[in-house]
Records
---
Amino acid sequence: MEARAKIPPGLPRPNPTVSYWQDPPSEIADLRSTQDLPRSADYAIISSGISGAFVAYNILQRTSQARVVLLEARQACSGATGRNGGHTKAASYRSFVDHEKHYGLDEGVKIARMEFANIRATHAFAARHNIDCDSTPCDTVDIIYDRGHLESGRKAIEHMQQTMGSDDPAAEYKVYSAKEATAMFLTPGALGAFQYPAGSINSYKFTIGVLRLCLQQGLNLQTNTPALSITPSTSHIQPSWTIQTARGEIATPNLILATNGYTPHLLAQTQGLIVPLRGQITAQRPGSKLPPAGLPTTYSFIYENGYEYMIPRPPGTAHAGDIVIGGGLGRLPNDGASEFGETDDAAVHPALSEYLTDCTAGYFGENWGEDDADGRVRREWSGIMGSSADGLPYVGPVPGEPGLWMNASFNGHGMVLCLKCAEALVGRMLGGEIERRELEGWFPRTLWMSEERTKRKFVGRLNQKAPGEAEFGEREEEGRNGWNREC
Ligand SMILES: Cc1cc2nc3c(=O)[nH]c(=O)nc-3n(C[C@H](O)[C@H](O)[C@H](O)COP(=O)(O)OP(=O)(O)OC[C@H]3O[C@@H](n4cnc5c(N)ncnc54)[C@H](O)[C@@H]3O)c2cc1C
């Protein structure tokens, strides 16, 4: 894992696989708001994923006169956000015990509450702004196939409800026996299940919607313009940064990197701290015996050393009833170690293609029925996540680099964190003393970038212990892994 963490990510690759969500592409996919790059900007953001879009949105909400430029290497929203599972699901019980152990109970509670608030806020934002993105708040179920996970999960849920209060919506869970889980969720072989509030969304369309709101407020969007490098100015009077691109340079006093797994290309000190991780996913036509109205909840299937995550396409949407399912890393040799450090989202892993294609009929067994006459798989694609050394994103000013900010490395959990992290980042950048104090009340301090966090060693999934050996998320003291920050 150490060797894989050292692989430089480079720039996003040309001609990536086209995700289910990006077909057809938005009409702003190749937008350049101005023919030439502006020479300077008050704020420059690198990335048009959900993080970059919400950073731009928050800045423009506060300072509508500000000149805000957003650079994107490929098409708009062509990174992880445009190619993910669209699962707005926190699964906070899987990390709560670990967060409490390492950061204290208050912080564990803050993280769980923020994750829940982020999910709610995402769906509410889509509704408030009328963004056509199939936003569907609904319950999710974790179908458990492993005794260790079942026990750890039960204990973690009980502990959350005792410490946070069973009326806390972030601690709302229902626990089902094997018999109940099999009957209710059509999953023979389940040992049990946990059900809780979550949702699904077309995060490509959602983020394009956020970018559109920003464009209406004056955002200058420059797609197909990779930032090749960034350099600080040598002036001591006012810090500033210059972004080098093939189309010229942009100078700015405020540079925000929302570059997820690619961040080390621009910021060498994050090499080995943020590690790209390639994920793979498929969209499948439902089997004939699945409910004609579609499955009412989203799913995760949790087994000894990994999981799959799945959303059914909600009624009334294109291809309603389709099953979007990804994961499978735990089925590869070495728990998928080969996918760490891998940034080739122009390709898919053949073993994962085979596994993901087969697993749906496997999970639903006789409840799947016959495959559609046009075949099971409608589309498959891959995408690049940013894995962090401690499983949490890095938010805030970059230590020792005045004028440079980051909001990056959201693991498989961006739909659960990005909106609130962008709000906090911009609050810290532009807010006054009162706002900063408010931020301390709700934003988990452990997510701020710090010198201390830069010292943690990346260990990836290889640090994962066998079930029963440890509680959820138990990690080595030195290095922390991000496996439980799931989609
Ligand atoms: C297959 C897959 C499935 C997933 N499923 C889920 C899920 O169901 N639920 C969930 O919560 N999370 C999921 N995730 C994770 C989630 O998608 C990410 O955490 C989230 O999208 C991160 O958003 P972001 O804006 O930080 O990064 P991204 O969306 O990756 O955006 C980063 C952008 O920066 C651009 N960029 C990078 N370097 C440069 C440069 N030098 N110059 C210019 N532009 C640059 C990239 O092109 C990219 O568009 C999944 C991820 C993948 C890959």
---
Amino acid sequence: MSTRPRVSARISAISESATLAVDAKAKAMKAAGRPVIGFGAGEPDFPTPGYIIEAAVQAAREPRFHKYTPAGGLPELKQAIADKTRRDSGYAVEASQVLVTNGGKQAVYEAFATLLDPGDEVLVVAPYWTTYPEAIKLAGGVQVDVVTDESTGYLASVEQLEAARTERTKVLLFVSPSNPTGAVYSREQTEAIGRWAAEHGLWVVTDEIYEHLVYGGAEFTSIATAVPELGDRVVILNGVAKTYAMTGWRVGWLIGPSDVVKAATNLQSHATSNVANVSQMAALAAVSGDLSAVAEMRAAFDRRRQTMVRMLNEIPGVFCPEPKGAFYAYPSVKELIGKELRGRRPQSSGELAELILEEAEVAVVPGEAFGTPGYFRLSYALGDDDLVEGVSRVAKLLSEAR
Ligand SMILES: Cc1ncc(COP(=O)(O)O)c(C=O)c1O
């Protein structure tokens, strides 16, 4: 009998997605009849707009879309993504610099797989989205955390980045607006970080998937446009999921210099080939249409954001800086760790989240999932009434902490 492990070391090292695990537990409790309110979801609660669905229905009827198409994406979609990037970010790219992927997630994997050799370091601002560490690890890269907290609204400074840079640093991962914190870098901050990266010859991988979800006075700035000095060492990741309420359609993209895009396309040609044509045609309708659907969602998210942040900050022991983008609040619950609550003493935000799920029937994602224990992530992409009810239940429970 072979004593070799059944599952490879590389794949065994991948953790279960903590956000999906919380969601699964909440759904199981719901299925068992308990009135759980979930703040775990990372997706808009709106349906995909009708004109996008119509485009998909038409595409499904066309025999040419029943066949394989180019692995890197339909030419008309690649052109539309290039045009959209020029429209929204002022960044001029050719269709040949676009690779259409199975959601933004595949773009994340392919970007790191294409750029990293074993031992190459990637600077990642924590709290970070759960998928990045796994994609970096699988590519043989080494993640170097740049930890931020509520005192700066989870924004990293050039000084912090410089302190983490070594001779092995190849890539800076720049995410604004951020999942999980909702932090948005100003134009000045973006320029300063981009210039620092350019000065040190770093690549910048920038995830722009929440570009259209910014609130109040905040503005989205594409680092690629703001810092021309970065030249051709920028890779942009994006997709239709969050802007057009299309998480289930699985269309994202990667934009970069031709050599990187060509290499990533070769990888995709052996992994998944073309993204489902029906989804690509839906995405074409989305990116070449106007932004009225996202404007409507943004107004609803903004209202819910303000309600949630106000309610969270009224809870003793909870502090939530104002998120400026995406659809998440990221409050600190550090003061509540170790306090007595319903006969228990949670020793981590993970344990506190479990207690809240059991006692208040509310699901939140603990900060452990995002590299910073002591926090919760709450999505405000859910109905106003559920939001108020859910946060009220948490407030009532946590007010008993002693
Ligand atoms: C920051 C960020 N990037 C990328 C994605 C990928 O989205 P999708 O694969 O659904 O397009 C997500 C989804 O949660 C995200 O939060």
